[in-house]
DNA sequence: CTGAAAGCGCTTACAG
DNA sequence: CTGAAAGCGCTTACAG
């Protein structure tokens, strides 16, 4: 095998094929007609030299990176796994590379550190809630970098957002607890501060209570953080303080795991004594014991829609400012249904 | 706010600071001493102009991309989520960006398509089993691109591999089924063809049987594919064909979900009638019913170790050719323990 | 410690 | 349809 010290460049290919580098570039990109026979010679040379165009040179010359950037607060859990799957597939489908970066939940560690993803290395950015500070959003918007937000709305700038029907999903499942199972003291576990999903779910929760003539009791609202451990601690705390409750709307499925753990450890029967429901319908929800009643959120689709809108922006087309994907209640057994 | 049509370049900064672009480059990279006062002026200019160095230009000039490429067969499931988490954190820690690409399990769709990740846009590649064809590995190795394999060994080239103790982990858990629970007809569900993890686990399974004087019965070995659905179908098939068995080593935890589903649907009591065990210890394992006895694999650490070795290669340092991370049995209830 | 200049490897008007 | 040449925005010897 021929192992050249330096990888072949476009000039090597041009020389070998007996054409100019402009012609090589044209057959590479299909930007202009090239006489078939000439194109053939170029292709042969490319193969013979094992030529791969250097991305940096293309980017520098064309001013297009063909890369999408993804900012996430963290990677873990079934939630981000689904979202990432949707994003990756859609990006690939649209011909873009994907650069990812996690910021770590509260970005206080590096107050004004330059983002590793931005106008200098991507054609556009996808950002999930809590991964960008407001001033960064404003800056990116002001310099015209295509930007799409997921699960976060931002007022003041016209930035496309993809999110899901949190409020109605939450309202439905809480109504179900009340109507089908006669629950009246329903705990709500908030997600992380700043998480819009959580705020909307809380509104749905409150609305459902009020619709059914129940008062919102602040003592029943606690922090679950969309996390197993936090949710577990929250329930343990309610139990320790003897707060009476007959159901828990966990905020999300991840938190529901912690709720189930805490209840089980305390010898509280689910769903006989306390109903437990979640939100998201992660792939494991059916396998919990009892199988989790929850609200299905089309997470993967959020990812693919976000890419779709971002690509539109990059191409200079109009993008939808708000994409609201529907959610749907999934009844299993943890609510009390059989 | 000042919104320039074109983002500032190094030349703009140099002009504004009254120095040469070389000097700007130096304060940017800290490659050479610069008189503090001059450096200060440059910093001011950078801030004032909101200057961000274009990545492509740096890469082209320096011939370093500062980017790691990750090739995965797919993104989904708790397994890849953990691995990705380890990789992302380690890459960021080492100052590299991360470009990811999923190839889709059997790469037959695009026989000789150029990989979107390679010497043209990364300083090195991380590849999980089944994401690269052998000839691609050979090619990448031959051109000297730093490359680290995960859960896959490759003979012929000196390519660092990170993997886990599959065989002993499997042998231990199968031995446990025999010794602690008197199981004698233990099903093994293979992973995908070509998955080395699966081959080693199968050897561990066979070894444990033989050590205990049991014969390997080919009728008890079936394909689970490390997937829920495939595993479920495999068990359903065994059941339908009236093959007698008293335990299932599912291959991995994902498959164990399918096993549990099939058994439950058939009214077979786990673990009373049939013990079920998995491999990996994904975060949901403790929450299954019954809680899953399995083998803990340090997946996140596989990711971070892989980055560590890759960075060594990139820096021209010696890397360890084989990193074998230990696994550990985690006893819960699905085996029959209480 | 600093600057002038070459060079990284492409794309893209501009001519022809 | 094709080529010569400018230019993308940096880094890095080489002088001084």
Q: What would you say about this model in short?
A:
Helix content of chain A is about 40%, strand content about 15%.
Helix and strand layout, with pairings?
Two copies of one chain form a homodimer.
Chain A: H1 10-17, H2 21-29, H3 36-49, H4 55-62, E1 67-72, H5 77-93, E2 97-102, E3 124-128, H6 134-142, E4 147-150, E5 161-164, H7 166-181, E6 186-190, H8 196-211, E7 221-223, H9 228-240, E8 247-249, H10 253-265, E9 275-277, E10 294-296, H11 299-314, E11 322-325, E12 328-330
Parallel strand pairs in A: 1-2, 1-3, 3-4, 4-5, 5-11, 6-7, 6-8, 8-9
Antiparallel strand pairs in A: 10-12
Helix pairs in contact in A: 1-2, 1-3, 5-11, 7-8, 9-10
Chain A binds a DNA duplex (16 and 16 nucleotides) through α2 and α4.
């Amino acid at each position: 095998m021929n192992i050249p010290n330096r990888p072949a460049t476009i000039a090597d290919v041009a020389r070998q094929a007996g054409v100019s580098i402009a012609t090589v570039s044209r057959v590479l990109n299909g930007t202009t007609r090239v006489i078939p026979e000439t194109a053939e010679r170029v292709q042969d040379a490319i193969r013979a030299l094992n030529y791969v165009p250097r991305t940096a040179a293309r980017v520098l010359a064309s001013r297009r990176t063909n890369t999408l950037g993804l900012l996430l607060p963290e990677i873990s859990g079934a939630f981000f796994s689904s979202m990432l799957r949707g994003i990756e597939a859609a990006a690939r489908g649209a011909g873009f590379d994907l650069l990812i970066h996690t910021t770590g939940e509260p970005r206080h560690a590096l107050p004004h550190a330059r983002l590793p993803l931005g106008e200098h290395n991507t054609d556009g950015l996808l950002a999930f809630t809590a991964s960008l500070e407001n001033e960064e959003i404003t800056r990116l918007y002001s310099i015209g970098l295509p930007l799409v937000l997921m699960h976060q709305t931002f007022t003041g700038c016209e930035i496309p957002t993809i999110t899901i029907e949190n409020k109605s999903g939450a309202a439905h499942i809480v109504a179900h607890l009340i109507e089908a199972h006669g629950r009246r003291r329903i705990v709500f576990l908030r997600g992380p501060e700043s998480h819009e999903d959580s705020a909307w779910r809380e509104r749905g929760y409150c609305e459902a209570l009020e619709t059914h003539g129940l008062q919102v009791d602040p003592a029943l609202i606690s922090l679950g953080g969309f996390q197993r451990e936090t949710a577990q601690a929250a329930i343990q705390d309610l139990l320790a303080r003897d707060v009476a409750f007959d159901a828990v709307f966990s905020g999300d499925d991840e938190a529901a795991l912690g709720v189930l753990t805490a209840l089980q450890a305390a010898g509280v029967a689910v769903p006989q004594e306390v109903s437990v429901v979640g939100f998201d319908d992660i792939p494991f929800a059916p396998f919990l014991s009892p199988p989790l009643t929850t609200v299905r959120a089309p997470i993967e689709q959020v990812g693919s829609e976000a890419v779709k809108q971002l690509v539109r922006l990059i191409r200079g087309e109009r993008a939808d400012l708000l994409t609201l994907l529907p959610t749907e209640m999934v009844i299993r057994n943890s609510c009390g249904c059989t």
